[in-house]
Amino acid sequence: MQGGNFSSAAEFILIGFSTFPHLQLMFFLLFLLMYLFTLLGNLLIMATVWREHSLHTPMYLFLCALSISEILYTFAVIPRMLADLLSTDHSIALRACASQMFFSFTFGFTHSFLLTIMGYDRYVAICHPLRYNVLMSPRGCACLVAWSWAGGSVIGLVVTVAIFQLTFCGSNEIHHFVCHVQALLKLACGENVSILAMGLGLVCIAALLGCCLLILLSYAFIVATILKIPSAEGRHKAFSTCVSHLTVVIEHYGFASVIYLKPKGPQSLEIDTLMGITYTVLTPFLSPIIFSLRNKELKIAMKKTFLSKL
């Protein structure tokens, strides 16, 4: 199907992988394995926390919520991407495109908010241990998780409604493998497109930077408190509870900054596609690995829960 000129879009064509015609089968197998590993890793984390009563703490409740958001985020994006890699028909209906954008933004920003809450949890645990049970009560933790999902849903709704109230004209080819905001804005026409693009960019960047600054603030207080611990063993034990979270934060915001803070200008389709893969496929793939390997309590619980039965 070829892209044509039209004023009211009924469908779009995703051409993100069209520049890699000889690599599509390899990409399919690689991304399928990474997707299955992502699902398996997050399900193992959730099952371990569920079965191991010693992990029924706020930190691991937030980790389970994070795993759920990752599973749903990848489910909103990767199955469609895998289907396109095997199909010659890359068209996507307008409603399907809007749904994909809404759910990817909802679960993506929920992930960011949950990482921020996990940073706050580590701050309270290390800086105010005597007040931890009060500040991180079950009801309080449930409210924090609910607000994270609500915040992600609001941003997803705002972005999706704003984009799909535009008029699309010209080619219906989306230069991406998902319904990406910037790629869709290039297809839109009208006087308010540039203003809308700037507004959406500010909303997304403000949300990401706000979360990032809160996490940095939490770790500034954490580092200051850890440095006051007299023994090296005590400092190591306190910081070890933060390593996995801090690693995932660096990975998450590192790849997110590549997407949202890249300089404006002409970009090749190949570069846009490869940059999108880092955040869409690679980040969810690495997160459960980092939490499983860098979190000592979780690693021991996984061995106890699953390997002891072999």
From TrEMBL:
GO CC terms, sorted: plasma membrane
Pfam families, per database record: 7tm_4 (PF13853)
Keyword hit for Transport: no
Domain G-protein coupled receptors family 1 profile: 41-291
Topology versus the membrane: Multi-pass membrane protein
Superkingdom, natural source: Eukaryota
Transmembrane segments: 25-47, 59-78, 98-120, 141-164, 195-227, 239-261, 273-293
Classification via CDD domains: 7tmA_OR10A-like
Gene3D superfamilies listed in its UniProt record: Rhodopsin 7-helix transmembrane proteins (1.20.1070.10)
GO molecular function, a single term: olfactory receptor activity
InterPro entries in UniProt: GPCR_Rhodpsn, GPCR_Rhodpsn_7TM, Olfact_rcpt
The entry's keywords: Cell membrane, Disulfide bond, G-protein coupled receptor, Membrane, Olfaction, Receptor, Sensory transduction, Transducer, Transmembrane, Transmembrane helix
Compartments where located: Cell membrane
Task of the protein: Putative odorant or sperm cell receptor. Odorant receptor.
UniProt protein name: Olfactory receptor 10H1-like
Organism the protein comes from: Bos indicus x Bos taurus
Lineage start: Eukaryota, Metazoa, Chordata, Craniata, Vertebrata
Gene name of the encoded protein: LOC113896669
